[in-house]
Each structure stands twice: as C-alpha cells, then as structure tokens.
C-alpha cells in the first residue's frame, strides 16, 4: 500500500501543473462563473487525495492539505481555490469507497480493517450531521452516507457473528 500511495502522489505533480495552467485561462474574479467546468474534476481529485491520505494514515485529510496537494488555494480570497462544497463532496466519495474497501478487506482476510473503517465512517457521519445542508446535490450525496454506514455495519456484524472480530481486536494485527 505505501508504494501504491507514493506512486499516486507522484501523479499529483501532473495535476498541479494542469491546475496551474487552468488558473491562467480566466480572470481570478470570475472563478464561480466558470466553476461548473471543473467542479466534478476537483471533487474527484479531492477524493483521490483523501483516499491516499487515508490509506497512509487512516485519518481524514483537511481541506487545506488537499489544496496543498493540488497546488491551489484553500481561501477564496486568494484566487483559484478549493470550494468547501467540492471538498465535502470528495470526502463523501471517500466514504463510499471505504465501504467497498471494508468488504474487500474481509475477502482478503484482513478482519481488522473493517473495524477501523467503521470507526472512521461513524465519526465522519457524526461530523456531517452537524452541518445544516441545503436540499442540493451535497445533501443528496450526504443522504447516501447512511447506506455506506449501514454496509460497513453489516460487514462488522458478520465478522462478529463469525467470531472473526476477536482476531481483529485482540491480536497484534488488529491494533492501530
């Protein structure tokens, strides 16, 4: 996993170059006029950066750290920046991918990872519940998070029923 993460980080150099070029294509005060042209790409890049950071550290990457990885600004006032909604959408995509990873981890015989993913996703869900989201695309994406939480809970429950979570929490391989 560390080698794959390192290789992925190398690709972010190309991303930084491309975003630097994009910044020069329109006036800085026209960001939101053209935002729809790159919104999806930025959300996907946030997901990729968040996934790499999660695989490396099992923590949630901050918006500022993602902006640094992408070579753009975190603050709106400083020009081409990472919009907060794009960041949150990317994080929600991370949750969906982690639900898939939990299932695949069990298939690969790693019974401790789903437990750690469950803890992370539950904390993420708690954080999103604190937000007052409008009835827009971000809200709809957030509503999908409950299905990711449920999917991971089912994996953890199955591990518990089969007695495999004892291995995951009691053995040396299950400690964080």
UniProtKB/TrEMBL annotation:
Mg(2+) binds at residue 97. One of its GO terms (cellular component) is cytoplasm. One of its GO terms (molecular function) is RNA binding. It holds the Pfam family Translin. The keyword DNA-binding applies. GO terms for biological process: RNA metabolic process. Keywords: Cytoplasm, DNA-binding, Endonuclease, Hydrolase, Magnesium, Metal-binding, Nuclease, Nucleus, RNA-binding. The keyword RNA-binding applies. It is found in: Cytoplasm; Nucleus. SUPFAM superfamilies: Translin (SSF74784). DNA-binding protein that specifically recognizes consensus sequences at the breakpoint junctions in chromosomal translocations, mostly involving immunoglobulin (Ig)/T-cell receptor gene segments. Seems to recognize single-stranded DNA ends generated by staggered breaks occurring at recombination hot spots. Exhibits both single-stranded and double-stranded endoribonuclease activity. May act as an activator of RNA-induced silencing complex (RISC) by facilitating endonucleolytic cleavage of the siRNA passenger strand. Belongs to the translin family. PANTHER family: TRANSLIN AND TRANSLIN ASSOCIATED PROTEIN X. Ring-shaped heterooctamer of six TSN and two TSNAX subunits, DNA/RNA binding occurs inside the ring. This is Translin.
């Amino acid at each position: 996993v560390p080698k794959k993460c390192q290789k992925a980080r190398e690709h972010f150099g190309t991303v930084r170059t491309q975003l630097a070029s994009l910044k020069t294509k329109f006036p800085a005060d026209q960001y939101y006029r053209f935002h729809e042209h790159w919104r999806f790409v930025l959300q996907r890049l946030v997901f990729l950066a968040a996934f790499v950071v999660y695989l490396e550290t099992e923590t949630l990457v901050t918006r500022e750290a993602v902006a640094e990885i992408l070579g753009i600004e975190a603050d709106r006032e400083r020009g081409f920046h990472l919009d907060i909604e794009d960041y949150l959408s990317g994080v929600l995509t991370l949750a969906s991918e982690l639900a898939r990873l939990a299932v695949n981890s069990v298939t690969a015989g790693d019974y401790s990872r789903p437990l750690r993913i469950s803890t992370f996703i539950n904390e993420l869900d708690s954080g999103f519940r604190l937000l007052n989201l409008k009835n827009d695309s971000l809200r709809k994406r957030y509503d999908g998070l409950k299905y990711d939480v449920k999917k991971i809970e089912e994996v953890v429950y199955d591990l518990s029923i089969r007695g495999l979570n004892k291995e995951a929490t009691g053995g040396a391989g299950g400690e964080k």
